[in-house]
Design goal:
By secondary structure, this protein is mainly alpha-helical. The protein contains 17 helices and 5 strands. Helix 2 runs antiparallel to helix 3 (about 90-120), helix 4 (about 125-145) packs antiparallel against helix 8 (about 190-205) and helix 12 (about 265-285) crosses helix 13.
Amino acid sequence: MRAFHFLDTPDMSFSKTHALRTICAAVLLAATAAQAQPAASSTPGNTAPDPRMVWDLSRLFPTDASWDAERNALIAEIPKLRDLRGSLGRDAASLRSVLDAVSATSLRLNRLWVYASTQSTTDNGNARNQERMGLMYGLWGQYSSAVAWVDPEILTIGADKITGFQAADAGLAQHATKLRQVLRQAPHTLAPDVETALASYAPVLGSFSNARELLVYADINWPTMTVEGKPVKLSDTGYEEFRRHPDRALRKEVFDTFWKAYGQYENTLGALLAQRVNTGVISARMRKHPSAAAASLSNVEVPEEVLRTLVAQTNAALPVLHRYFKLRQRMLKLPDLHYYDIYPDLVKSDRRYPLEESSALTMAAMKPLGDEYQAQLQLALSARTMHVRPQPGKASGAYATGVYGLTPYIFLNH
């Protein structure tokens, strides 16, 4: 589970535009800086990693012990949110007070979650990391259950009264987006007791994602191949690296070996996928959405027609993709084209960009965006926000995560 959705995150002391710019700046710098070095082997040696390539989580919690202390403190605080039930409609001050309390708790929970999830995805096989994530799933369920009454109670107040409260109390401005979203979701919000029950089961219903990650990144014993005289473990990262190899016979061997290993777990992976699909379908039906796709997109206020249009236009453009494949086949001088032939580079370059040069190029390229943007870029680098290299037990892919008000963390596999 890479994303964690909380009840509310207020605007606080700076605008959403500023926050988004900070995230974009960090992602851009991280991606560029990561490309500064040659790709690492999928079987790292014993040399210590460059500290600039490993993120510093002390901005979240200085030690594991401090994380544990905050988690225990939050466990004691969460039940107090349930005690606030029935107070939202008294007056504007009561509404603001409750929303402030819920928002502050969600921010603390987010901080705990990011600390646990970032460590888990860099080493899924570590038992302590797994334990932390298990504790977070449980805490997430407790929190969700404790605040499940909030949205239904806001709806009982009604849009007109909410508008009056907002006019009477300027402090509600930071919760304007939350209130608008709750009112928008009125047709899909269930009774308070039902919402509470669903929230309590949420960690269980979402366990398919955690199970898949542990299977793929910790439990599967990925095969080893010899590439250019060196042993290479064909995990997701090794596969992605060596499917680009210029030797076609080697690419085919990499492809066959990797997917044969994956295929041994097709029943388990299929069952987890089916659980994910069924969860989405059942949730959509319960909340009276026309489809699971519409339900998922509703959370981010994207009409289902946008998705359908995207799929239709993608299908319409397939002939262009097929022309590209034919061109690739000619440029690689191949008699035919297979899946393992779509990854090798068509143009070769031996140019390498040291980290300092890469950072300088990025700073220069972003100069037209102004001093504030430049400052955020520099902060993202100096604060050690990236985890760049592949390593055993690390999840594949890339993502950005973070806590509101702090420079985001960037997960990569370069």
